[in-house]
TrEMBL record:
GO terms for cellular component: extracellular region; lysosome. It comes from the Eukaryota. It is found in: Secreted. GO terms for molecular function: aspartic-type endopeptidase activity. Belongs to the peptidase A1 family. It comes from Caenorhabditis tropicalis. This is Peptidase A1 domain-containing protein. PROSITE patterns: PEPTIDASE_A1 (PS51767). InterPro entries: Aspartic_peptidase_A1, Pepsin-like_dom, PEPTIDASE_A1, Peptidase_aspartic_dom_sf. Keywords: Aspartyl protease, Disulfide bond, Glycoprotein, Hydrolase, Protease, Secreted, Signal. Its main location: secreted.
């Protein structure tokens, strides 16, 4: 875990509520994304939250914080999120970012993918299959339907979100249970997971977005958790009619690069060019 020592920063402005800092700009102490040169994105005058007390869980957590990339409507106190700030300052070639995730099993301390700010990643991603308008510019939320696996099909049109921070696919419990059953998985109550044979090949899990059919291959939704145990990367969630019905997390984003077009309020999807593991 990395610690921010505010006394070493010469370019911040501390707010009275003691929860936010306005970062100005200092090349030696900038909040940069990337390593050097063209890999860097420095965003002056960015407001972010700080904590003087944290949970002990962070000591063993590889993540040092959360870099929010969605809209101002979700931001605490209505502050302008970093990427929206960058767009307003004209720092990006295009008002969007794209995400490519590697087809990796359970590994640590390895590269997991690429975030491309201001452009579509044409190195790791193929041609864009289609764009879908956002149904709500809070999360990256849009319409989808025809969730299917094997002989099971749920054709209902629902709101879904794309979320890089969700490792699994989340959906209504009734639908998730049926998909797991089609794959031959069984639910483990104690582990709260759908257990499946590590050698299983249930076929692609499909979803339709904007008239385009997308297929998530089994190697992207079956995860080896060690000791010869594998789980389907699915979890049930029921919001009771409020919020999105599905979260298309990392299994979907590994299969298809996701393009988050903030300027045009839409999502784009392109096939990953990386071969299956």
């Amino acid at each position: 875990m990395e610690l921010m020592r505010s006394g070493e920063w010469t370019t911040y402005k501390k707010y009275l509520d003691r929860q936010r800092i306005m970062w100005q700009h200092d090349q030696s102490l900038s909040q940069n994304i990337g390593a050097t040169g063209e890999d860097q994105l420095a965003i002056p005058k960015t407001t972010f939250g700080i904590a003087d007390k944290i949970s002990a869980d962070f000591k063993s957590d590889a993540a040092d914080g959360i870099f929010g990339l969605a809209f101002t409507t979700l931001a605490v106190d209505g502050v302008v999120p970093p990427l929206i700030n960058a767009i307003k300052q004209g720092l990006l070639d295009e008002p969007l970012f794209s995400v490519f995730l590697e087809h990796r099993r359970t590994l640590t301390n390895v590269g997991g993918g690429v975030f491309t700010y201001g452009a579509v990643d044409t190195t790791n991603c193929g041609p864009v299959i289609g764009y879908q308008p956002l149904s709500s510019a809070t999360y990256f939320q849009f319409k989808a339907n025809r969730f299917r696996l094997g002989k099971y099909l749920n054709a209902k049109v629902v709101d879904v979100i794309s979320d890089t921070g969700t490792s699994f696919l989340g959906g209504p419990s009734v639908v998730i249970d049926e998909i797991a059953k089609q794959a031959g998985a069984t639910y483990d109550i104690l582990g709260e997971a759908y257990i499946i044979d590590c050698d299983a090949t249930p076929g692609p899990l499909g979803v339709t977005i904007g008239g385009h059919d997308y297929q998530i291959e089994h190697y992207n939704y079956i995860a080896d958790v060690g000791d010869g145990t594998c789980v389907m990367a699915l979890f049930p969630m029921d919001f009771g009619g409020f919020g999105p019905s599905w979260i298309l997390g990392d299994p979907f984003i590994r299969q298809y690069c996701n393009i988050y077009d903030l300027g045009n309020l839409r999502m784009g999807f392109a096939p990953s060019l990386k071969p299956a593991p």
